[in-house]
Specification:
The protein is globular and about 35 Å long. The longest helix is centred in the middle third of the chain and has 10 residues. Helices cover about 15% and strands about 35% of the residues. The protein has a single domain, classed as 2-Layer Sandwich (Beta-Lactamase). It is mostly beta strands and about 110 residues long. Strands 2-1-5-4-3 form a 5-stranded antiparallel sheet. The chain has 2 helices and 5 strands.
C-alpha cells in the first residue's frame, strides 16, 4: 500500500496541503466534495485562494502557528466534523491535513473515566 492509499478506503474526505498552503493531495471523497470548484484540479492550487473570509484568515493563522482546528458544520441538512491538524516531515511542519467526516443525525456522546 502506498502512503495515502488507505485514505481511499475510508468514508472521510481527506485534503492535504503543504506548509505554504498548496494542496498536495485530495482523496476521491474530497475531490467529489469540491467538484464545483474543480475537484482534483485543485491539487497544486493554494487553499487560501479557495476560501472566503474569515476562513482564509484562520487558515493563514494555522499555517503560521500550526495547531489543531476542529469544528462542526451543517450544510443542506448534512452535519460534518471538520478536523484540521498539522502534519510533520522529519520533525518539521510540513502542512495541514483536513478530515471532513459526515456525522449521523443522532450522535451519541460518552463521558469516560
Amino acid at each position: 500500500m502506498n502512503s495515502m492509499e488507505w485514505s481511499e478506503s475510508v468514508p472521510v474526505a481527506v485534503t492535504v496541503c503543504d506548509a505554504d498552503g498548496v494542496i498536495v493531495y485530495m482523496n476521491e471523497k474530497s475531490a467529489a466534495a469540491f467538484t464545483k470548484y474543480g475537484g482534483k484540479a485543485l491539487v497544486g492550487k493554494n487553499l487560501l485562494d479557495c476560501h472566503p473570509e474569515p476562513a482564509r484568515t484562520r487558515l493563514r493563522e494555522l499555517l503560521a502557528e500550526p495547531k489543531v482546528n476542529a469544528y462542526t458544520i451543517e450544510k443542506n441538512g448534512v452535519r460534518k466534523l471538520i478536523h484540521q491538524a498539522p502534519w510533520y516531515d522529519g520533525g518539521a511542519f510540513a502542512g495541514l491535513v483536513e478530515l471532513s467526516i459526515e456525522l449521523p443525525p443522532e450522535l451519541p456522546h460518552f463521558v469516560r473515566k
